[in-house]
Structure formats: structure tokens, C-alpha cells
Amino acid sequence: MSYLDQITSPTLLLDEKICRANIKRMADKAARHDMKLVPHFKTAQSHQIGDWAKEYNITEVTASSIKMAEYLAGQGWVNIHIAFPFNPLEIPKLNKIAAKQSISVQLVNAATAQMLIEQLEYPVGFFIEIDAGYGRTGVEVSDFGLMEEILLIAKKSDKLNFKGFYLHAGHSYYMPDIPALYEQTRNALSMLKHKYNSEYSKLVTRTGDTPGCAVMEDFGDIDEMGPGNFVFYDLMQAELGGCDKEDIAVCLAVPVVDIKKDRKEILVHGGGVHLAKDVLVGDNGLKNFGEVVYLNENGWTIPQDKSFLKSISQEHGIIKASDELLAKVKVGDILGILPVHSCMTADCMGEYMTLDGKMVDHAEGFLVK
Q1: What is 33-232's CATH number?
Q2: Looking at residue 171, what is its pLDDT?
Q3: How far apart are CA 31 and CA 38, in angstroms?
Q4: Residue 332 in 3-state DSSP?
Q5: Long-range own/partner contacts, residues 292-297 (CB < 8 A, 24 or more apart)
Q6: Distance, CA of 365 to CA of 351 (rounded, Å)
Q7: Superfamily of domain 3-12+244-368
Q8: Are 201 and 305 in contact (CB under 8 A)?
Q9: Strand (E) positions, 168-242?
Q10: What's the confidence (pLDDT) of residue 368?
Q11: What is the CA 263 to chain-centroid distance, rounded?
């Protein structure tokens, strides 16, 4: 039976072949630059996709929460890193993981470091997160006083071990000049490496944004890369130049429930609870919540004339349809929607269906069962 025959409601499709190609391409790039690839699994959040990643010599992984780290623990990872300013209220949960799994956290202040050395029961590594222009979180790259304070506190305990510096240049998502931005990243991490290398000879530096990791070829002396979105990519990454639309490995299958040919609109069952509400805005001011692809037995094809979701509500999606699409679609058909932000779409859906009709786990779906 075709996977298409199994779809009666919004379903997130995963093309394993494209996904594997994306993982391999980034793993090859990391190897080419003598860097370690430590992917951020906030995108995939899947044991199965983790097993695919291990086939490409990926041994460590990054999570965005303690809950995700709990889900990934015990799956054979050499280390799990939580790339979020650590929440000290979750130290008891951290201790449970650290009892059986190598794990590291991210520190941005002295107060959390102090609580960790007082409450940790098992060894835990830590990165100091650096802010070199993004402005979301992290220690200012020039604030050596705060860095020294965190490091001095950590030295008071053999349970809290310094691993290095982590920098997420998230402004690469909205700054067009990624090479100029990455010069800041390279310079910041290189400066910190050389400043602290004599005291911490094994320290590593890691950068984490997908646009930069996908586009750049000059990483200087950065040791590790930790992108996440690259396993699937999405329309946002395509717009930023990090991938082609053909590299997008997931699409949301949505049933057609009504057609308004006079308005060139198609109503589908697929809205914010399935796609989230990330949006691209074109030069003409039109909002794009996802683009239509045509599903077939082997996956999907991208039409020459673009049709896109012009608006979404909780369960509804309204497609602005091309003449080509209007001529072929009928009520009861299944269309595919390439997501604007695949991480959020996957998080909303909680599982994947492969093109051979098999279900692939996702942390959100797994943890509620």
C-alpha cells in the first residue's frame, strides 16, 4: 500500500534519502575543515534519525532542554550538550542523567555555576556561552571578569569541568552579510582560545548556527560546529542561501477540503497547530506560511508556478493557488506543504511518516505516549 493511501489528516512526511544526504554533506564539510560535527537535535528530536547520524561518524549531540536530553540519554551518544543557559531548578534532573550519561551544560552567569558546585552529584561538563553580537544570551565577548568568575567557581569542585566556549551567531538568520558576521565569530572564538589555552589546554570552541555552517568555508581555528536545521532544511534556509528547495527533507501532507476557483484559493486541513506560524514576507508584501509541492509515490515535486499558504489559523490553511494547481486539484486530494521553519513544524507534529509508510519517532510524540 502506498504511503499516500495512509494519509487522512495532516501528516509530516520525511524523505529519508534527502535527510541522509543532508547529514552526509554537513559531516563531509566538517571533516574537510578538520572540525567535529555535533549536531543540534532540536530539529530532528528522533532516536531513528540519531541512528542515521551515527552512520556518518557523528558521536555527540546537542539538545535545547533537559527534557530533550532525557529523551536522548542512553542512546549511545558519547556526550549530550544542553545548548541553553542552564536552569538551576533542574539540577536534580541533571544529576539523574549524569549518573549514567556524559553530559554538559551551558553557563552564562556565576549564580548558576555556584548552585551547580553545591548540588552536583556526578561530573558534568560546561561551556561558557559567548555573545558576539546576537544579543539574545551569553557572556559579552569582552567581559573577561564574568568569565573568570565562572571559571574560579568551577575550580572549587571536581564535579564541574570546563570544556570550552560556545557561540551561536543567530543573527545570521536576518543579517544578509553572513561572511562579515562570521568574521566576528571567528575572531571572538580565536581570541578566547588563545587567551585561555595555556591554562585549559583541552578547551574547544564551537559555533552553532545553520546558515553560517551551511554557507561558510572559512571557519578559522574553530574546533566544532553544531548546526541543527540542516538535517531537514526549510524555506527560510533556502531564502538565506544555505540550501535549495530540493534539499528540504520534510513536507506536511494536508487534505484539500474546499476550492474557491473564483478567488483562486484552496482550503486545506493544515494550520498553526501543524506548521506553527513562522512566515516569510515577499517583496510584494504577501505572507508565505509554506509552499505547495505535488506528492507522488516517490516523494514530491516542486511545481514551476508557485502556490503558497497565504494565511493560516489553528486548523485551517488557505492556499493562493496557481492556474496549474487549480486545473488539477479536487476536494479530497492530498497536497504537500514545504515548511517555513521545519524545527517548529516537527515539534508541532510529534512524529514523521517515511515514503515507505513507516513511522519515525519524535521526542514530543514519544514523551506523551
Answers
A1: 3.20.20.10
A2: 56
A3: 12
A4: coil
A5: 292/319, 292/321, 292/325, 292/335, 292/336, 292/337, 292/338, 293/251, 293/335, 293/336, 293/337, 293/338, 294/335, 294/336, 295/4, 295/13, 295/251, 295/253, 295/334, 295/335, 295/336, 297/2, 297/4
A6: 6
A7: D-serine dehydratase-like domain (2.40.37.20)
A8: no
A9: 204-207, 224-225
A10: 46
A11: 36
List, for residues 228-259, the tens digit of each pLDDT value. 999 999 999 999 888 999 999 999 999 999 99
DSSP helix/strand/coil, 10: coil
For the record, the C-alpha cell of 272 comes out as 498553526
- What pLDDT does 369 receive? 44
- Angle, helices 144-154 vs 110-119, to 10°: value is 0
Contacts of 244 (CB under 8 A, 6+ apart): 238
pLDDT at 94: 98
What is the SS3 string spanning 88-113?
Answer: HHHHHHHHHHHCCCCEEEEECCHHHH
**Distance (Å, rounded) from C-alpha 33 to C-alpha 8?**
45
Written as nine digits, the cell of 6 is: 495512509
Q: How far apart are CA 315 and CA 364, in angstroms?
A: 19
Domain ranges, ordered by start, for the chain:
3-12+244-368, 33-232
Q: CA 75, CA 13: separation in Å to the nearest integer?
A: 24
Return the residue matching grid coordinates 552567569: 109
Those residues of the chain that have pLDDT short of 50 are 368-369
Query: Does the predicted TM-score (pTM) go above 0.85?
Result: yes
Q: Is 249 within 8 Å of 14 (Cβ atoms)?
A: yes
192-208 per-position pLDDT tens digit: 999 999 999 999 999 98
Q: Which residue has the cell 486530494?
A: 333
Closest residue by Cα to residue 353 from 309, 300, 317: 300
Whether 33-232 and 3-12+244-368 are alike in CATH topology: the answer is no
| Alpha carbons 332 and 330: distance in angstroms, whole number | 6
